[in-house]
Amino acid sequence: MSVNIGIPGMEKYFPGLREGTINLIVGAPGVGKTILGIQYLIDGAEKNEDVLFISLNESAYDIKRDFEDFTWNLNILNVIDATPTSKKREIRPYREVTQVADVIKMKDVKDKYQSREIDVFNLKSTLKVILENRKFSRVLLDSITSLKYFYTLDVDPEEATMSFLDFFRLLENTTSLIIAEYFEDIENIMRMMDSVIYLRREGTEIILEILKTSTFYSRSVVPLTLTKNGFVINEKKGR
Amino acid sequence: MQVQKFGIEALDNMLGGGLRSGRPYIISGNSGTGKTVLALRFLYEGLKMGEKCLYIATDKPPHSTITSISDSFGWDLLSLNVMDAVPTPSLYSTVYPVRDVTAKGEIREISEMSKNVEKGELTMESIILKLELEYKEKFYHRVVVDSFTTLKRFGVEEERRNPVMAKFFRFFVEKGSTVVLTVEGNIQKIRPELILSSGAIHLKREVQDMEEKRKIAVLKMRGSFFDPIEREFIIDKNGISIRKVKSK
Known about the structure:
heterodimer; A: two-stranded antiparallel ribbon; 12 strands; 25% strand; globular; B: alpha/beta; Rossmann fold
């Protein structure tokens, strides 16, 4: 079974993500990775799937504001706001085991920022509790680069990131999409991925390139245009 | 969506209207590309709109920067509040470990600013503490940190650098201020800042055939259908002007 990434007509170039696998979107800041990720979740939510957005880059409140200009109904998404706090780090002799974040419906997101100290360990244990009790068909993590840079104090960032992702690989019926900013930071995690989607900018156009997929080897290059309905294929230049 | 403009029409258009209020932004580029001028243009525009604006200086004492910019462009920056966060010489000589001391960086009106202000050793975390107190008394609509790169270099130990940077960016988001941080160095060196920011403007200065060319591009702008095309710009007595893109 393959899971559509949500771009209309994309099946011609790319059959989709394999159910139950982890997959990567990589591309420079500002290219539209979060938009494509949300498009993937919306596609599932509109088919009445239970989908989850784990946001490390921007608070749920800010995400909601960011997508005001789109035609999508973001309120149907579930979100875990795992953005950091500016509050001073507490001195803890042991690793926190309590849940540091909760799943909420985007429609219930109010003008409030969470204030709990989150790191790679307590986020992982929190996700474990949540995902063992509730099955999501699609999960989006934004982003693994953020996790590696900002959530790995006192630990080896590389190892911590790998073990964090390992957890997603064990989720049997969940198709995960992981966002990463830079190739240099993902050398070790590329291998874990079932497929890798590379987004880049050429002038005003966004180019989507399938770098890796398990279903068949292809190097599909698809030019996209960003609209208020999300990314659509620029058919005039389609190859 | 509420936006805050630079007051440079072409740039505001490139950004999709302006900066979205309450978010962190970076202006990146090498030394001499015009980051400080652009950042202060942003504050000047805020003052004109009657907003509270704060300039946090870490490279040069704010007094000299503000005076020279006011004189060059005729911008009235007198109602600007400034924080002198220039590292002390002792901090330069004993870079690591940075001592976590209480912030002594003073915030004051530029009009009452003297050239020699006593200050302590400023760290990224002590500046957050200092600002926390300041925000109890007043809200700032626009804040500029010039340069964030110096603060990053001297204001936090290397092994804690990225997480503390995340806290620093986050502070302004929690307060609801729009903050512009100037950042030096090539794209590889400023990756964490690029990720933490909601948007990025990149400045370049090139010399071709004895002619100086300045270029500006929006690299990233969350929540906006921005225009990524690079444009030429000039800095003269009228401030910053962006040239139209030549049609192909």
